[in-house]
Design goal:
Length: 328
C-alpha cells in the first residue's frame, strides 16, 4: 500500500480521503490531518456493515480542549454516476475518541471511494462554564482597532470631526478627511495633489458602492472596522482595495475569502480571483471544484457559469479537469 493511500487532502475546512479499493473485511486508518487546532483521523471498516469514524488524534490539546464539531460527512462512490451517501448534519458534537462519531452506512460500498468531511464550525468549551466559543470567528481585521489611538481616529470618522471631503456613494454620502485618505491610498493622494475635480469640489464619487459598503471601507482605513462588518462587505472592500491601491486591505480580503469556500460561493469567488488577480484564491477554488469533486454538486450553476465567464478562465478550468482525470 503506498503512503498516499492513507493521506487526506485538506483545505481550510474541508478534508477528503480517496480510497482506490476497499476490499471485504477491511480496516483502514488515515494519516493524521490538521483542521483547525487539532490533528484528526478518519477510519473506514468494512465487515458486516460499512463504518466511517472521525475523531481527533489523542494529545494534551484534545484532553484539555476537545473539539466541539459541526460538520457534514459524505461517502461518495467515485465510479459511474458518483452516488453520494450523506450523513445528517452534525451540530456541536464533542469528539474525544474513536467512539464519539461512528457512521454505519446501510448500503454496501465497493470500489473507489471518497470520504468527504466539511467542517462547518469548531468550538472549544469556555473555561468559566459559559457558551463554547468558535476558533474561527475572528481575524486580524478586528485587532487593528484595539489601540487607543485608533479608537480616537475612528471617532473622527463616526462623529464627523473636522471632515473636509465628502464621499458620495450610490445611495448616500459621508464625510471624511483628505489627509487620512491620502496617507492610506496613493490614488486618493494623486486626486488631492493635482488639479482634479475631487480637489476642486471636495467630493469623491464612488457610485459603484453602497453607503454601507463605503462606511465599511472608511472604517477599515480609520482602523475601527468590526469583524462582522468586514465579512459582510469583503467583496465590495476587495474591489475598493484594488481600485484605490490599498494592498493590505486587498490581502486581508484575499485571506478571508480563502477561509470559507463552499458550494454556494465558490463560483463567485473564482470569478473575483480571476478579476482581481488573486492566485491563492483561484488555486483554492479550482482545487475545491476539481480535485475535491464539488463541480458535480453544482452542475447546473457551473454550466451557467461557463457561458458567462472569461474564456481564459474557462480554459484554465478545463485544463485542471483534464489533469485531474489523468490522476484518478
Amino acid at each position: 500500500m503506498t503512503e498516499s493511500a492513507y493521506r487526506v487532502e485538506t483545505t481550510a475546512r474541508l478534508a477528503q480521503w480517496r480510497i482506490d479499493n476497499l476490499a471485504s473485511f477491511t480496516y483502514r486508518k488515515s494519516d493524521p490531518f490538521k483542521i483547525g487546532k487539532w490533528y484528526w483521523h478518519l477510519v473506514v471498516e468494512k465487515n458486516k456493515v460499512f463504518l466511517v469514524k472521525l475523531y481527533p488524534e489523542i494529545s494534551n490539546l484534545t484532553r484539555e480542549n476537545p473539539p466541539i464539531a459541526s460538520f457534514i460527512i459524505r461517502a461518495v462512490c467515485s465510479a459511474g454516476d458518483r452516488k453520494a451517501f450523506i450523513h445528517p448534519e452534525i451540530r456541536d458534537k464533542q469528539l474525544k475518541n474513536n467512539d464519539h462519531f461512528v457512521w454505519a452506512v446501510e448500503v454496501p460500498l465497493t470500489g473507489k471511494l471518497i470520504i468527504d468531511v466539511e467542517f462547518l464550525d469548531l468550538k472549544i468549551a469556555s473555561p468559566d462554564g459559559g457558551e463554547p466559543s468558535s476558533i474561527w470567528p475572528e481575524g486580524s481585521t478586528e485587532s487593528q482597532s484595539n489601540a487607543t489611538a485608533l479608537e480616537y481616529l475612528g471617532r473622527m470618522l463616526t462623529e464627523g470631526i473636522h471632515t473636509d471631503i465628502t464621499i458620495n456613494a450610490s445611495d448616500g454620502s459621508i464625510g471624511a478627511h483628505r489627509a487620512i485618505l491620502a496617507a492610506r491610498s496613493p490614488v486618493f493622494r494623486s486626486m488631492f495633489s493635482h488639479d482634479l475635480k475631487e480637489k476642486e469640489l471636495s467630493t469623491i464619487n464612488i457610485s459603484d458602492m453602497s453607503i454601507e459598503a463605503v462606511q465599511a471601507f472608511l472604517s477599515y482605513i480609520y482602523g475601527n472596522i468590526q469583524h462582522e462588518e468586514f465579512l459582510t462587505h469583503r467583496l465590495a472592500l476587495l474591489g475598493a482595495a484594488d481600485k484605490y491601491d490599498i494592498s493590505d486591505l486587498k490581502e486581508a480580503c484575499h485571506e478571508s475569502l480563502l477561509d470559507d469556500i463552499d458550494v454556494r460561493n465558490v463560483l463567485e469567488r473564482l470569478q473575483n480571483a480571476s478579476l482581481y488577480q488573486l492566485p491563492k484564491l483561484k488555486s483554492s477554488c479550482m482545487r475545491y471544484l476539481v480535485k475535491f469533486g464539488k463541480i458535480y454538486d453544482i452542475r447546473d450553476e457551473f454550466n451557467a457559469f461557463l457561458h458567462s465567464a472569461d474564456m481564459e478562465l474557462v480554459a484554465e478550468i478545463f485544463h485542471e479537469i483534464l489533469n485531474a482525470w489523468k490522476g484518478f
